[in-house]
Amino acid sequence: MNRVVLIGRLTGKPELRYTGSNLPYARFSLAVNRNFSNAQGQRETDFINIVVWRKQAENVCNFLDKGSLVSVEGRIQTGSYDDKDGNKRYTTDVVADAVQFLESKAQNQNRVANGSNEPTPYDYQNNYSSGNMEPMNDINVDNDPFADFGDSVSIDDNFLD
């Protein structure tokens, strides 16, 4: 199964383009926070390339801007091409089946205009044990349940039967 679900913020304004057969598509990069801290106590971010097609591409370009909070559902697609120097380059993209807008354009513009560093709903996770909402950057990585497993975990396919 090849299925991806991401929540993050656009790193720039998506640009609408068209294929030779006039099919609309857009590409954008999504900044997705990791839900754990590195050795220095800082949370890292992954920048994931997204491709969206047809009407969804038009909507993304019309209503989203840099910093917009979205949810993306889709699949991973890999490819390759030869650059101008003849070197083989490999690509990995998420081809979006659905892009959901998680805040209004006005909310995003207000957040950017105010230079707000206030947490958004995306910056919180549900703490089921206490029923409280805690900022994700307060997660204690010392409680990693897989810390003693070593470098890898192997699960036998027969386990699922």
Describe this entry's structure for a reader.
It is built from 2 helices and 8 strands, in the order ββββαββαββ. It is mainly beta and about 160 residues long. It has a single domain, classed as Nucleic acid-binding proteins (OB fold (Dihydrolipoamide Acetyltransferase, E2P), Beta Barrel). The strands form 2 sheets. Strands 1-3-4-6-5 form a 5-stranded mixed barrel. It has a two-stranded antiparallel ribbon with strand order 7-8. A hairpin with a 5-residue loop joins strand 2 (about 15-20) and strand 3 (about 25-35). It is globular, with a radius of gyration of 19 Å. The relative contact order is 0.17. Mean pLDDT is about 80; it is low at about 120-140.
Low-confidence stretches: 119-142
Task: Briefly note the CATH topology name.
Answer: OB fold (Dihydrolipoamide Acetyltransferase, E2P)
How many domains is the backbone divided into? 1
CATH superfamily: Nucleic acid-binding proteins
Strand order of the largest sheet: 1-3-4-6-5
Concise structural overview:
This protein has 2 helices and 8 strands.
Quick tags:
OB fold (Dihydrolipoamide Acetyltransferase, E2P), 161 residues, two-stranded antiparallel sheet, mainly beta, globular
